[in-house]
Amino acid sequence: MPINEFRSIAMFAKAVELGSIRQAALAQGVSPQAATQAIAQLEKHLGVRLLRRTTRSLALTEEDQHFLESTQPALATLDRAIATAREGKDDISGPLRIVGPKSSFAGILMPLLEEFCCQHQGIQPDVQLDDGLGNWVLDRVDVGFRMGASLEEGMIGRRLFLIQLIVCASPAYLQRHGVPLSLEDLANHRCSVFRHPATGRVTPWYLTVNGEVEHRQLPPALSTNDTELEIQAVLSGQVIGQRANFSAAPHIRAGRLVPVLLPHTSDPIGLHIYYGSRAAQPRRVRAFLDLALRRLLESTDHVLSDKELQSSSRGWRRGRGR
Q1: How many folded domains does the chain comprise?
Q2: Do 151 and 253 sit in the same domain of this protein?
């Protein structure tokens, strides 16, 4: 049923209930002229005169009474559905559909979900992590995360923090193979590379050179489409790798990884959060967005300052007596 027909039928039913088109207009929050026009349009659409108007009252024919009785159950059902939708909009419970990248993202998302679900026991997370690009609008996504700014039609995007790409290795690797002091030195090192799971393409290293970000393909000692396997290979001392800050930061801070080639660290992209219009979002979605922004916007948990990087690099050298 088109929305204007529903409104006209609802106006007709309210006028009969209250015995006055003017009173029906007040109850529905419209002008008497608009109420009269709505009923007239319904009568024209049906090809019958629904209300016999007098100066004091409204009267129904037998056919009009049948029409009213037939529409009342449908109107009641629609009223209940609208009330349920409005209540659900303000209820912090129910499904919460989230999408994000598969690569190294679980460590960022899981603390958010844990905190949010502890605060709101009725939340039912529905999470899909995929490095491919889907249609978030058609998939009815509530909140999306993406590395890089690629705005979906109908979605609002906001950058949370920069993604630093840091060349790093374990202390054991550096003891065995030495510290690369220039990009040319990497030709003599065991480098790891990431193969994008959606495309199969090898991702180059993104390196800052003379203030510009260059893409460099390196001969791989290890290539993999799994970021967790790659970080484990770097931690074990098998390879040297270029890691994103949100996966490398805790290991660098704990001394398990050492950042090298610091002048060539780059931050070419950011982690973005995407969502629809906040005004139309259910309360649970707005609450999760607020939490994500509080925890991740310019997060120092995931972003390493220049001072931290320099200190970690110098600390390892001092530990070796250099």
Answers
A1: 2
A2: yes
* CA proximity to 241, closest of 266, 214, 268, 223: 223
> CA 251, CA 255: separation in Å to the nearest integer?
6
Same domain, 186 and 276: yes
Cβ atoms of 235 and 257 within 8 Å: the answer is yes
What range defines the domain where residue 49 resides? Answer: 3-89
315 or 184, higher pLDDT: 184
- Which pLDDT band holds residue 3 (cuts at 50, 70, 90)? very low
Q: What would the DSSP string read from start to end of 192-257?
A: EEEEPTTT-PEEPEEEEETTEEEEE---EEEEES-HHHHHHHHHTTS-BEEEEHHHHHHHHHTTSS
Residue-wise pLDDT for 165-174, tens only, equals 999 999 999 9
> To 5 degrees, how large is the angle CA 186–CA 265–CA 263?
80
Number of C-beta neighbours around residue 223 at 10 A: 13
The reply to whether 39 and 121 lie within a common domain is no
Q: What pTM does this model have?
A: 0.69
According to DSSP, the β-strands at 241-244 and 143-147 are: unpaired
